[in-house]
Amino acid sequence: MGKMAARGTDAREVLAYEGYRELDLVPMPEAIPDLGIDAGFLGTVDHVYKGGRRADVEVSDDEGTTLGYVTVEADPEPHVVAYYIEEEDY
């Protein structure tokens, strides 16, 4: 997870097969500055909707701490639908 090896990975290439699958590593199709991530940042698919065409993806830092969750959709092109920033417990 995190920034490892996502450089140059195109989200369209990842979705050329049957769509998202739980626990897949997928690149973010666009940057999300509020989460501190760039396009191509890898996240782990947590839950799949719409027959694999929409997914909730967990994004974490290099230490494994969850930064937040991103809902991505494959159609018509991979794009971010929404995101949630993980709040620290106090």
Task: Name the descriptors.
single chain; mainly beta
Largest sheet: 5 strands, antiparallel
Quantity of strands, as a count:
5
Helix content estimate: under 10%
**What order do the strands of the largest sheet run in, or round the barrel if closed?**
1-2-3-4-5
Secondary structural class: mainly beta
Give the ordered list of helices and strands. HEEEEE
What's the N-to-C terminus distance?
Answer: 25 Å
Shape: globular
Number of domains: 1
Contiguous low-pLDDT stretches (5 residues minimum) are 1-8
Tally of DSSP helical segments: 1
Could you report the average pLDDT, rounded to the nearest whole number? 82
Radius of gyration: 12 Å
Percent strand equals: 35-45%
Short structural summary:
The protein has one helix at 11-14, and strands at residues 25-27, 42-49, 54-60, 66-73, 79-85. Helix content is 4%, strand content 37%.
